[in-house]
Amino acid sequence: MSEEQTQADNRPRPTTDQFREFVAQDWAPRPPGASTADEVAAYTPARRDALSQRFPGDRLVVPAGGLKVRSNDTDYVFRPHSAFVHLTGWAADAEPDAVLVLEPREDAGHDPVLYFRPMAPREDEEFFADPRYGEYWVGVRPTLEDLAVRLGIETRHLSELDAHVGKDAGATTVRLVRDADRELTQRLDGVRVQEGADQESLAEADDALAAACSILRLTKDAWEVGQMQRAVDATKVGFEAVIADLPEAVRRGRGERWVEGVFGLHARHEGNGVGYDSICAAGDHANTLHWIKNTGELREGDLLLLDAGVEVDSLFTADVTRTLPVSGRFSDAQREIYDAVLAAQEAGIAAARPGNRFSDVHAAAIRVIAEHLHAWGLLPEGVDVEGTLDPSTGQYHRRWMVHGTSHHLGIDVHDCALATREEYMDAELVPGMVLTVEPGLYFKADDLKVPERFRGNGVRIEDDVVITEDGCRNLSADFPRTADDVEAWMARIQSR
Ligand code: GLY
Ligand code: MN
Ligand code: MN
Question: Could you identify the atom of ligand 1 that is nearest to the CA of residue 460?
């Protein structure tokens, strides 16, 4: 706890020895700890091995990160760093300040050690008196033994961390995921500089580790794909609850917030929460790509673009968009736009297969978008489909679809973000990659270049696919996708 917080803490607490003794007495014994490993523990050794092979002889430090102050003495809900989650399998229930260390072995490879703040005895002052970490305030933590059984990793008390990570920091290259835990980064920088490293080279060494942790997640193992499917299935529960409640959202006013709340309720109920702030964008708001204010009305006749995903307890998230007619029926103009986006998405999904590059998915989808814009006469005079697709002299279509069609998806909604262009955009798709396919068309209400009938409508259709040996499997195939199917889906749910 920082000094300011201590000073600002003006609530008196009993401090007599008698009181402390009284509080520590007469508690039933703790229940037994875990006797079996978590399912994920069968998969994390291969992930750590892959990282180990990239950095032979180096000590690798991957922190979960600490609590972040929201205001005064109130913290945000803790979410561990994605690299830590991936390498340990410790996810929604991870303890703040935990750190995974991969210690290089003499022969080859690394030994993993997980440092964390374990369960404190009731006699410990912390139990009753520490509102940030104490069991009485925030709940019980696992013991060292318990967590070792669950994750299959040697565990040690957090108080031993600094002596370990700084040991021989001159002779051993120590690499740290820097953005996870600012305080640890400062401490370890101090130690490393003292041992002769210069700030620039250690930042370079660290960046290579962070990038490697990101790249490692480009392909998902079978367990991860299973988690992605769970996330998608949980997301469908949320979408269907929203559809069921759309009339209520219209009736109440400020319907976008109602939609956000209904989806958020199910995200919290089904999993850890939303994987990113839900975009609940009705009418012209759909044309603001990152509309997360969600302050608007839902009006009959408008479209609702709902881009939302449940993050399950393993912290894998879905990322799905459906564009729904608030009234349950698309107008002719809305359907025209919708069908164009759907055709683009079909082309993108067809291109999501091994042998193609990641960027081919976008290329396939955007060509269809460009064809429709050309057919509608929206491109500048003299510019045809090839003309607008020309990367240096064209790109006029981007006025109506400025974003990419795909991104990798996993523990982060925009997963693997530190991979280079060669490893990401230009890389060949291989089985186990999970990506979104999400073309859209956005016609702003004040866009005088588009026919009046299109204005004020934005459409995106987003599905999550996993690359297979001969193509891809749509994890969100259970979400109706054609205009007819969406209408039938809404009618079915709303007549229940
Ligand atoms: N929801 C963010 C995205 O679709 O990328
Ligand atoms: Mn999305
Ligand atoms: Mn997305």
Answer: 4
Give the DSSP per-residue string, 391-450: TTT--GGGGT--S-S--B-SSSSSTTTTS-TTTTTTSBP-TT-EEEE--EEEE-TT-TTS
Mutation to probe ligand 1, out of 292, 436, 437 (largest number of atoms < 8 A from CB): 436
pTM score over 0.90:
yes
β-pairing verdict for 154-157 and 110-116: parallel
Substitution site in 305, 401, 438, 442 for ligand 1 pocket (most atoms within 8 Å of beta carbon): 438
464 ligand 1 Cβ < 6 A: no
Per cent of the chain over pLDDT 70 is 97
Q: Which atom of ligand 1 is nearest to the CA of 279?
A: 1
**What pLDDT, in 10s, does the model give residues 147-206?**
999 999 999 999 999 999 988 888 899 999 999 999 999 999 999 999 888 888 899 999
Q: Is the dihedral of CA 397, 372, 307, 305 positive or negative?
A: positive
The residue count of the chain comes to 496
CA dihedral 392, 394, 398, 402 (to 10 degrees): -10
Cα diameter, the chain? 89
Ligand index nearest the alpha carbon of residue 437: 3
Ligand nearest to C-alpha 435: 3
DSSP string across 183-238: HHHHHHHHHHHHTT--HHHHHHHHHHHHHHHHHGGGS--HHHHHHHHHHHHHHHHH
Q: Does ligand 1 lie within 6 Å of residue 404's CB atom?
A: no
Q: Judge if the beta carbon of residue 319 lies within 6 A of ligand 1.
A: yes
Query: Distance between CA atoms of 445 and 454, rounded to whole angstroms?
Result: 8
The rounded Å distance from CA 464 to ligand 3 centre is: 8
Domains of the chain with CATH codes = 3-215 (3.40.350.10), 222-494 (3.90.230.10)
Q: Is the C-beta atom of 438 inside 6 A of ligand 1?
A: yes
* Spatial separation of the C-alpha atoms in residues 443 and 376, rounded to whole Å: 13
Neighbours of 422 (CB within 10 A): 8
Per-residue pLDDT reduced to its tens digit, 414-433: 999 999 999 999 999 999 99
- Residue 212 CA, ligand 3 centroid: distance in Å: 23
| Residue 142 near residue 119 (C-beta atoms within 8 A) | yes
